[in-house]
Every structure is written in C-alpha cells, then in structure tokens.
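Page 42, continued from yesterday. The earlier attempt failed because a stray header line got pasted into the input along with the sequence. Redoing it now with the clean sequence only.
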Amino acid sequence: MTAPAWEIWVGAYCAKGEVGLTRLEFLPNTGELIKTAEYGGIENASFLKMNREGTRLYAVSETATYDEGQEEGGQLASFPIDPDTRKLGPGQFHPTHGAHPCHLSLTPSEDWLAVANYSGASVMMYPIGPDTRPGPPAIRFRHTGSGPNADRQEAPHPHSVFFSPDGQFLFVPDLGMDKIIIYTRGPEAHEWSAHDAVSLEPGAGPRHFAFHPNGKAAYAVNELDSTVTRFSYEAPGKLVRLGSISTLPASYSDESWCAEILVSPDGRFVYASNRGHDSIAVFRIDEQSGELHASGHVSTRGKTPRNFALTPDGQWLIAANQESNSIVLFRIDPDSGLPIYAGTELPVIKPVCVLIR
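This time it went through. Structure tokens are written below.
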C-alpha cells in the first residue's frame, strides 16, 4: 500500500531577496525528500504555522527593523495557499510592534494568533477572520523583569507562545525572566488578560513548551541550562512544577543551548534539541509516575539543530541544522523512541523551522 506524501515547509534565516520559504514533499515509502518550490519576499522566516485546512501559511519575520530600516520591529506574514497547486500567493504583512518576533501560535478554534517578540519584551495578538487572514494587531502584553544571566537575561525575552488544548489559556515561556507567563481568555470576543505565572530555576532560560497528548502534563525546554522541566496540568490555567532533567550526557562539558521540545503523538517520549552538542535528546515518560528517563542522544548529523518536527503518525523526525545548511530525515524506532538516520539529507540554506502537514 502506498502511503500518502507529507507536505513540508521550511523557514530560513535569509535576506528578503533570498529563499526564505521552501516547500518539500516527503515520500515515506521510499524515504525521499523532494524540493518542490522556493520563495523569497520574507526576511528571517524563523517560525511557521498553517491552518488546519492547509489554505494559509503564517510566518514571523524576525527582524529589528523593516522597510529598509524605516520601521522598527518585525512583522507577521500570511500567505494564501492554492489548494490544488499548493503554491503560495502574495503575502500580507502586519507589524508586530516589537523587535525580533520569533514564534507564533494559533488557537485551536483558529480565531486568534499570538506572536512572541523576543527583543521587544512583548506578546502581540491578532484576531483571525473567517477568510483566515489576520486582522490588525488587537492586544499587546508587555513583560517586565530579568534574570541572573547578565548576558542573556538583562531584560524580558518572550521566546514562544502556546495555547492550551481548549484554547482558553496562552502560555509564554520568557527566557529573560525565568518564568512562564499565563494569559486567559475572557467572555468577550476581544478579551484576554494576565492569569498566572510559574517560576523556573534561576538562569534556566525557558524557551519552548509542549503539552502531553493527555492534556494533564506539560514540558518546558530551558535554553540556558540545557534542561527539560516537567509540569502537571490538572487544573485549567495552572502549571505545577515537578522537576527537571538535563538534556546533555554527563560526560559533555562544552557549551550547548537547547532549542526545541516535542512530545511523541502516542505520549511515550519527549524529544529536545541541543545546539552545541548538536543532538536530539530522547526521554521515556514513565507510565506510572510521569517522570522522564533519559533514553539517549542522537546526532543530527549537522550543526545547530534549532528546530525539528515529528510526522503526525510519530514514525519520522526531520531535523533542521541551521549552521550546516541541511535537512536530515530520521526514522523513529517504535520501541526505544530513538531517531535512526534514514539516509536522506537535503541542502537548505540556514533552515530554522520545519512544519509538517
């Protein structure tokens, strides 16, 4: 039986006139990755999202200024996708009113989109219309605070945005504050407000976040101290910190910084990427206690794996090696959860985000 092809989109750190978005097709029966289209017109497309119907691609343009330096901050871009040809149409751009937007997320109902402005110390929220286009920015949350790392935590640095499975809460890991800030949705259409916050170890630098498929646990990957922190999520909008585990081998002592974290679709494993050690760390989730146990580390066969993605069936992992300009394919071992190199690599300039549809 022939398995259907997966559609892959890759965002890259590139200038506006270079290739910032690449479309691939992955053929699981043969393990082939095929480059089908390349697009310019967006600078530093560092994170991507797509609506469920696959008709619109959203991206952040991670810049300090745009329009040749005339405007401060970055931009939110959205591109219509032709449902038949899968080609991108002309982009629509909105300001993020903050420098270096680095992550974005859609509510499950796809009526709101949030953007984290890393250097702008803020989160911007955009209503999404019935036509899937973002409206002008409607809500802005500003963060204040700092952490003990003088070089990296001199100010707030919201690094990502994640909605709860029910779409009622927004979780914002702030690397500069060592906190995850939580916002809640109100009864009115345009009402969001501060709800709670949970602190991490001083100097941890929380970066990205992931819910367990059961909706009762969550995990943060901490960039600065190379750890994963586990939380319980038994009450709506309330995280309880339970403990942390290193993403690095005990024998490794050089510099390394975490980047991405994902939970396997079957809820058995947690994956985190290390930039420096240049690996994917794999953790088994204890069925009884929920604790994480290190299963091993797998080289991404390149430098600086800023991002990686799992296919929705959990059988494949695709890693983006930013500094070695490569996309690398791995098959997931169903028993150990470890990624196994599948023999497929594809050259892509400065890839920093992988989106699988």
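Notes: The radius of gyration is 19 Å.
Reminder to self: strip header lines before submitting.
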